[in-house]
Amino acid sequence: MNYAANAAALQADVRWDDYRFRDGETLSHLKIHYATLGTPRRNTNGEITNAVLVLHWTGADSRVLLGSAYVRALFDSGRPLDAHRYYLIFPDNVGHGQSSKPSDGLKAKFPNYDYDDIVDIQHKLVTEALGVKHLHAILGMSMGGMNAWQWAEAYPDMMDGVMPVVSLPIAVSGRNLLWRRAVIDAIRSDPEWNNGDYAHAPRGWVVGYNILRLMIDSASDLQHEVPDGPAADKMLGANRAIAEHVDANDILYSLKSSFSYDPTPGLSGIKTKLLALNFDDDEFNPNRLQVLQSTVPKLAHGRYVVQPGTASSPGHLTMTLPALWAHHVAEFMRWLEAPVSAVTRSSLSHVDRDVGAQAGAQQ
Q1: Which end of the chain is less congested by CB atoms within 10 angstroms, N or C?
Q2: pLDDT tens digits, 257-299
Q3: Contact at 8 Å (CB) between 59 and 132?
Q4: Where does the AB hydrolase-1 domain start and stop, copy by copy (predicted)?
């Protein structure tokens, strides 16, 4: 895909030779691309104090998050993650963007990776390549939100707070599992896939992308966008054009990398402030399951917001319209600036639960 470059962002690569993934497979040369906005600020010990890690979703990369919609809503002067105040780090996860991925040449011989590997590499980038010992915050969307939950468990003292957006702290299951499995099956069962050695986009991936669009958009938005047959033809044609420019191996690897994700056993170990934001028209993470409502109040410093959908809000894809939820990021960043005293600590879970429930009901 073509992206307009963000001239203010610094682009860089870091490489590790003979990188070993958790299952024992290795990649002779692992390249991770990343971008940064802003300038690191240091304390008297020379440690960076204003770093914020921003994590993309499946199939995206740093270029999407550095686009005009995100910059205007989140990173411009006076916005919640003002790049004049914070040192913003945008990695392209393994398998995505300008980082090492199957379509570079290995195709189906690329090492298998999962979300734990993704977080391992993010941590390696932050601590080794950039020298950041402590993050002020992590903001992640969808897969990035799931990674944020993982960070909070794996490195409980390494950040002041995490904000997972459109994600749940449970194993990939239900609709979220079925659509992933259906897309993978559509790709692998297509003879044109040829065990990953295809010459052009397999038709099974085009079908898989249509499944993705059915799931990722809200029912009300699709009703508005597809009122008749010609509109359906237009949308299906647009889907085909997009799918043909996405590598099927890359998407297959990124989808199956989620199957081992399950933060449930480690939730009690989360110490940091956490604000979970979901949208009630998101069919990937249905609010009717009441996962945030039953989980977040049990955290030491947990809050949640379930933002109501509108007639035109696109469900899970509301994450791509940050102007609609930037005010919650502002609330989160203000919360991080407020110290938690030992006196209020014991009552925080109850207070935050009420705040979260009220926010979800009133906004």
Answers
A1: N
A2: 999 999 999 999 999 999 999 999 998 899 999 999 999 999 9
A3: no
A4: 78-202
pTM of the predicted structure, to 2 decimals: 0.92
For the chain, give me the number of helices (H) and strands (E)?
13, 8
Q: What is the DSSP string of 76-132?
A: STTSTT-TTT-EEEEE--TTSTTS--GGGTTGGGSPP--HHHHHHHHHHIIIIIS--
HEC states along 42-77?
ECCCCCECCEEEEECCCCCCHHHHCCHHHHHHHHCC
3-state secondary structure 235-270: HHHHHHHHHCCCCHHHHHHHHHCCCCCCCHHHHHHC
User: Which pLDDT score, from 0 to 100, does residue 109 have?
Assistant: 97
Which SS3 state, helix, strand or coil, does residue 144 take? helix
φ, ψ for residue 185 (rounded to 5)? -65, -40
Tokens 């570079």 belong to which residue?
Answer: 104
Q: For the segment 301-355, what is each residue's pLDDT rounded down to a tens digit?
A: 999 999 999 888 999 999 999 999 999 999 999 999 987 553 333 333 333 333 3
